[in-house]
Design goal:
Layout: H1 3-9, H2 16-45, H3 50-77, H4 80-104, H5 109-133, H6 143-171, H7 174-182
Helix pairs in contact: 2-3, 2-5, 2-6, 2-7, 3-5, 4-5, 4-7, 6-7
């Protein structure tokens, strides 16, 4: 790739609003990569069976799938940045609650499943709002490059987040992984 091609590919980074969005989405993607691994170990540490683990993971995933279209409609009708902020606040709160329950020894599998229903619901609003914000941060001529950068950082965050989650759970435990996720 020539120097000019690199410059063109990275041009969206010259827009401050895009840089902020990219940084925020990268942090959010890291957190979303940590959660399933921490969740799996939390359930297993509580003595959960593989079936219970499947139910807890489904409690997180099903609301996301069921509500994502509604989340997209809401993100189109309300200011996307407000939907994104609200969804992130709900997600951080749920993960912080799980962290507190795990770290204090008060967690039960049913509690985690119920909290993860709320977390999965928040994700259904977060994803469409975040996707719709990218075109608002760069001119149309740079949208393709901006989307490529978003996908690149998305994939990188999920890879590093999953690896980091494994290390975090192994060294500090799932409660601390949820605390980092909430941050």
């Amino acid at each position: 790739m020539t120097r000019s091609a690199w410059r063109d590919a990275l041009r969206p980074l010259s827009y401050p609003t895009f840089r902020l969005l990219l940084a925020g989405r990268s942090a959010d993607n890291l957190a979303h990569a940590i959660a399933p691994i921490a969740l799996a170990f939390a359930v297993l540490d509580l003595g959960g069976t593989p079936s219970q683990l499947g139910l807890v993971l489904a409690a997180r995933a099903v609301p996301t799938v069921v509500l994502v279209l509604f989340g997209g409609v809401l993100a189109d009708r309300l200011p996307r940045h407000l939907v994104l902020v609200a969804a992130n606040i709900v997600g951080a709160t749920t993960q912080a609650l799980v962290a507190v329950l795990l770290l204090t020894g008060g967690a039960e599998i049913w509690m985690i499943a119920a909290i993860e229903v709320v977390n999965g619901s928040a994700s259904a609003f977060l994803f469409p709002a975040a996707s719709g914000l990218t075109p608002q941060t760069v001119p149309a001529a740079h949208l393709q490059q901006a989307n490529a950068l978003v996908r690149l950082t998305h994939n990188g965050a999920f890879i590093t987040g999953a690896a980091g989650a494994g290390l975090l759970v192994a060294t500090a435990g799932p409660g601390w992984a949820f605390a980092i996720d909430a941050l």
